[in-house]
Write a structure and sequence with these properties.
The complex is a heterodimer of chains A (289) and B (107).
Chain A (H helix, E strand, L loop, with lengths): L3 H73 L41 E2 L2 E2 L1 H6 L4 H25 L1 E3 L12 E5 L3 H19 L2 H17 L1 H4 L3 E9 L5 E9 L5 E5 L9 H9 L9
Antiparallel strand pairs in A: 1-2, 3-4, 4-5, 5-6, 6-7
Chain B lengths: L4 H70 L13 H8 L12
Classes of the chains: A alpha+beta (289), B mainly alpha (107).
C-alpha cells in the first residue's frame, strides 16, 4: 500500500499533464484548421486578382489598338466645326447666366459643395472637375493616394496579430479576430507625405480643399489611418430562423468604443468590412464590380 | 519479490513518460505547423496587397485611356479633355491662392 501511493501520485500527475497537453493540442489544431481555411480563401483571391490583371492587360492592349486606329483616321479626316466655348462672365460671379455653359462659384463656397471625393480608391469625376484637374494631375493624385493606401495596409499586415474575440462582443461564435496596434506615428508620416505630393502636383490652394474632404474619408474608411489600436472581428452569429450570418465588429481599444453589425447584404467592394474580410480570409458576400 | 518505493516510482515514471512525450512531440509539431501557416498568411496578404496595387494602376491606366479615346471621338481636334481651352486662364487663376473679393476681377 505504501508503495502504491507514490505510484498513484506519479500517474495522476502524468495524467494531468497529458490532459492539459491534449486540451492545448485541440486548441492549436482548431486554430490551424482556421488558418488553413483563411489561407485557402486568400490563395483563391490571389488567383482572382491574377486573372483580373490578365484581363486588364488584354483590355489595355485592345484600347491601344483602337487609339492607334483612331489617331490614324484623324490624321486624314478634316477637322469638324466645333461650337466655340464661351468663357464665363466674371461680372456675373455666383449667378446663373442664361444661355451660358458655365457660371462662377467662389472658392470659399467649395467647402459646402457636396460631392464624392474618392470611389474605389480613385478620385471621382466630380472631384476632378470641381478642382479643375488636368488628366496628368488626376493621375498623379490617384497614384499618390494609392501609394499611401498601399503603405498603410502594408503596415497593418506587418503588425496585425490573431487574438481572442473581445469580451465586449457577447454574441456570436469565436470567429476570427485580429489586433492592429496604433499606427499613429506611421499614419501621420504617410499623411504628411501624401499632402506633400498633393502640393507638388496641385500647388497650394487646391490641396487645402482636397485635404478637408480627404480627412473625412480617412476617418470613415481608414480609421483615421490607424490612429488608435483596434481589434477587428468576424464572428458567425446564429439567427432566430436558424441561418448563420457573419458579424463584422471593430473595437477601438483606446476609447473602448466599438461598432458591430451583422452582414445581411453583400458588402460594397471598397468598404472597410469587405477589405478586412478579404485580408483575413473570411468568406462574406461582396458585391461584384 | 517486492519492489522498493524508488523502483515503483521509477516504473511509474517510465510508464507515464511515453504518452506524455508523444503528446509533447505532437503538440510541438502542431505549433510549428501553425507558425508556418501564420507566416504564409502574412506573405499571402502582402502578395494580395501588392497585386491590388498593380490592379489599381492598371485600372487607372485603362480608365484614362478610355476617357481619352472617348474625348478623341467626340472632339477630335482637342488634346486635353479635362479643361476647355477657353477656360485655361481661369484654371491658372484657380491654382493661385484666393484673392480678397474686390468685385469681378479677371484672372
Amino acid at each position: 500500500m505504501s508503495n502504491l501511493t507514490p505510484l498513484l501520485a506519479v500517474l495522476v500527475t502524468a495524467s494531468m499533464i497529458f490532459l492539459n497537453q491534449n486540451a492545448r493540442l485541440a486548441k492549436v489544431r482548431s486554430a490551424t484548421a482556421q488558418l488553413a481555411s483563411q489561407a485557402g480563401i486568400l490563395r483563391a483571391r490571389a488567383g482572382e486578382l491574377e486573372q483580373r490583371q490578365a484581363d486588364l492587360r488584354r483590355q489595355l492592349a485592345e484600347s491601344e489598338d483602337r487609339l492607334r486606329l483612331l489617331q490614324q483616321g484623324q490624321a486624314t479626316a478634316p477637322s469638324p466645326n466645333t461650337e466655340p466655348i464661351v468663357p464665363p462672365d466674371p461680372t456675373r460671379q455666383g449667378g446663373w447666366p442664361a444661355n451660358a455653359q458655365y457660371f462662377y462659384l467662389p472658392k470659399k463656397d467649395l467647402g459646402s459643395v457636396g460631392y464624392r471625393l474618392l470611389e474605389a480608391n480613385r478620385l471621382t469625376d466630380d472631384a476632378t472637375m470641381l478642382l479643375g484637374m488636368t488628366a496628368a494631375e488626376r493621375e498623379a493624385v490617384d497614384e499618390a493616394y494609392d501609394q499611401m493606401w498601399r503603405k498603410f495596409r502594408e503596415l497593418e499586415i506587418q503588425r496585425m496579430e490573431p487574438v481572442e474575440k473581445p469580451k465586449k462582443w457577447t454574441y456570436g461564435e469565436k470567429g476570427i479576430s485580429y489586433h492592429i496596434p496604433s499606427l499613429e506615428n506611421e499614419g501621420r508620416a504617410l499623411r504628411t507625405s501624401f499632402q506633400s505630393s498633393l502640393q507638388q502636383t496641385l500647388g497650394i490652394t487646391r490641396p487645402q480643399y482636397l485635404e478637408e474632404a480627404v480627412g473625412e474619408y480617412f476617418s470613415r474608411k481608414l480609421d483615421d489611418l490607424g490612429q488608435d489600436s483596434r481589434i477587428i472581428s468576424f464572428c458567425p452569429v446564429r439567427q432566430p430562423n436558424g441561418n448563420t450570418q457573419m458579424m463584422y465588429a471593430i473595437l477601438n481599444e483606446t476609447t473602448g468604443s466599438g461598432d458591430a453589425r451583422v452582414i445581411q447584404e453583400p458588402l460594397e467592394q471598397d468598404s472597410p468590412a469587405a477589405y478586412y474580410a478579404r485580408l483575413f480570409g473570411v468568406d462574406v458576400p461582396i458585391k461584384n464590380k | 519479490m517486492s519492489l522498493t518505493k524508488t523502483q515503483v516510482v521509477t516504473v511509474g515514471l517510465l510508464a507515464a513518460a511515453a504518452p506524455v512525450a508523444f503528446q509533447w512531440h505532437t503538440l510541438a509539431n502542431a505549433k510549428s505547423v501553425q507558425q508556418r501557416l501564420n507566416a504564409e498568411l502574412t506573405q499571402l496578404r502582402q502578395g494580395v496587397n501588392s497585386q491590388e496595387h498593380t490592379l489599381n494602376a492598371l485600372e487607372r491606366r485603362l480608365r484614362y485611356r478610355e476617357r481619352f479615346i472617348a474625348g478623341l471621338q467626340t472632339a477630335p481636334d482637342r488634346t486635353d479633355f479635362s479643361v476647355p481651352e477657353a477656360l485655361k486662364p481661369y484654371l491658372e487663376a484657380w491654382k493661385k491662392p484666393a484673392a480678397p473679393q474686390t468685385g469681378g476681377s479677371q484672372p
